[in-house]
């Protein structure tokens, strides 16, 4: 059992008023809020050990380097990677995916196929499209049904010896659907394809085990899991990271540079050119420690209660439709009200202190599928409450009355 009031007190922003009303923050899918201990850790880094890493013999540089590498180790343990050097620090999910697509530019050939799903965020569509344009490979799409679930028989039919990469998100940001990634990975591997999982929306809710999943790549962002913005991780299996070329050239990713030829550093440094977000990388470790102290089993159990409650309460509203009605869901509810634009509801409830996301959620193909301009998305975290859900429902009802 979580002590929600105690947890809420750890997040200073939650006690704020917005537009004169107590803040109800339901935009956790866009970014999570940060506990004081994460904010303090960022300040402490700059106050006490700020220095560049992996390059100085002086004490501060050693301290900063050690803290950065300790954090890499925490991430390794958290996602159960076999080696710490399979954990690359990035600026976020988008960077991680682009690192991989850039690498596959030298591997894919005309006639090869890349499979994405119809539930993807633009970050996991556009880089693959760009890759296909560059290489002559073809992009195939796993369709979904009216509940927002991937159609696995159609996926089976798409797979062939031409399939070189399969990529899906672990959890859909727009609908909250949890995809059967373990099954997808096994099936893709059976035809010899590599698999990238976009874990951006999964890591705030669950602890991914990359060895158990057996994915080749797993990308996520720190800012959605109580960590700082501008942080992220790309996990890659050692054999794949050795095979792919570096993404960016520059300092720290080299062994030796001459004007004739450069040799590259060993993993993970081959993929970490330039001065990284050192404070962010270190503090991401603090955020992971924090989430583990709350406990992912507790988080899941409580967030499921919030999901169930919000679904029930929202469905009391006449003319309200929820998108993403599949069985396996994270704590996200995407909805619309008959005849009202989602933006209008979002703007009115913002005036009542309620922060939700409205629009296409960077997942336009999903909106096209449902023939809608967008949705209102309420995405819940373990620091939200049923009382806040009641406030949102009342606010949505008010907005509906004003707009009809
Ligand atoms: N989704 C949302 O409101 P970055 O921006 O690199 O940290 O994450 C990109 C990204 C990739 N995949 C998925 C499934 C995502 O949800 C996101 C970010 C936010 O839904 C902001 S658009």
Structural commentary:
The protein is α/β, with parallel strands linked by helices. The protein has two domains: about 5-30 and about 295-404, Aspartate Aminotransferase, domain 1 (Alpha-Beta Complex); about 40-290, Type I PLP-dependent aspartate aminotransferase-like (Major domain) (Aspartate Aminotransferase, domain 2). Helix 2 (about 35-50) packs antiparallel against helix 10. The chain is globular, with a radius of gyration of 22 Å. Helix content is about 40%, strand content about 15%. Strands 4-10-9-8-7-5-6 form a seven-stranded mixed beta sheet, sandwiched between helices. The protein has a four-stranded antiparallel beta sheet with strand order 13-14-17-16, covered by helices on one side. Strands 1-2 form a two-stranded antiparallel ribbon. It has 14 helices and 17 strands. The structure holds ligand C6P. Ligand C6P binds next to helix 4.
Briefly note the CATH topology name of the largest domain.
Aspartate Aminotransferase, domain 2
Question: Helices and strands: which structural class?
Answer: alpha/beta
- Compute the number of helices: 14
Strand arrangement, major sheet:
4-10-9-8-7-5-6
Assembly type: single chain
Helix content: 25-40%
Which spans of ≥5 residues are poorly predicted at pLDDT below 50? none
Bound molecules: ligand C6P
Distance between the termini: 41 Å
Number of strands: 17
Please, what is the CATH homologous superfamily of the largest domain? Type I PLP-dependent aspartate aminotransferase-like (Major domain)
Strand percentage? 15-25%
Give the overall shape, derived from the CA principal axes. Answer: globular
Average pLDDT works out at 98
Largest beta sheet, briefly? 7 strands, mixed
CATH architectural group of the largest domain: 3-Layer(aba) Sandwich
Rg value: 22 Å
Number of domains: 2
Using the coordinates above, name the CATH class of the largest domain. Alpha Beta
């Amino acid at each position: 059992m979580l002590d929600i009031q105690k947890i809420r007190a750890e997040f200073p922003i939650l006690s704020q008023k917005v537009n004169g009303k107590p803040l109800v923050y339901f935009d956790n899918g866009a970014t999570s809020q940060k506990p004081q201990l994460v904010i303090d850790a960022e300040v402490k880094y700059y106050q006490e050990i700020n220095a560049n890493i992996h390059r100085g013999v002086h004490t501060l540089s050693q301290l900063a380097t050690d803290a950065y590498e300790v954090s890499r180790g925490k991430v390794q343990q958290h996602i159960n990677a076999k080696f710490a050097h399979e954990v690359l620090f990035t600026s976020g999910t988008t960077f991680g995916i682009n690192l991989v697509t850039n690498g596959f530019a030298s591997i894919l050939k005309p006639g090869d196929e890349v499979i994405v799903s119809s539930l993807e965020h633009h970050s996991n569509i556009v880089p693959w499209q760009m890759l296909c344009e560059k290489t002559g490979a073809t992009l195939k799409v796993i369709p979904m049904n009216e509940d927002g679930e991937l159609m696995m028989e159609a996926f089976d039919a798409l797979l062939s010896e031409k399939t070189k990469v399969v990529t899906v998100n672990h959890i859909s940001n727009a609908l909250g659907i949890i995809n059967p990634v373990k099954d997808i990975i096994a099936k893709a591997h059976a035809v010899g394809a590599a698999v990238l999982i976009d874990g951006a929306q999964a890591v705030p809710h669950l602890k991914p085990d990359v060895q158990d999943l057996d994915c080749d790549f797993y990308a996520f962002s720190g800012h959605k899991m109580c960590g700082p913005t501008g942080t992220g991780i790309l996990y890659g299996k050692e054999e794949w990271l050795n095979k792919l070329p570096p993404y960016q050239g520059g300092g720290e990713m080299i062994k030796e540079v001459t004007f004739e030829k450069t040799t590259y550093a060993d993993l993970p440094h081959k993929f970490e050119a330039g001065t990284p977000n050192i404070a962010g990388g270190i503090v991401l470790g603090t955020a992971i420690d924090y989430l583990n102290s709350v406990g992912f089993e507790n988080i899941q159990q409580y967030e499921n209660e919030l999901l169930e409650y919000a679904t029930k309460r929202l469905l009391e509203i006449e003319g309200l439709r929820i998108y993403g009605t599949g069985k396996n869901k994270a704590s996200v509810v995407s909805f619309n009200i008959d005849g009202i634009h989602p933006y209008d509801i979002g703007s009115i409830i913002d005036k009542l202190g309620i922060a939700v996301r409205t629009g296409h959620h960077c997942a336009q193909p999903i909106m096209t599928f449902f023939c809608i301009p967008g949705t209102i998305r309420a995405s819940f975290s373990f620091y939200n409450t049923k009382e806040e859900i009641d406030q949102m429902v009342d606010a949505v009802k008010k907005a509906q009355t004003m707009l009809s």
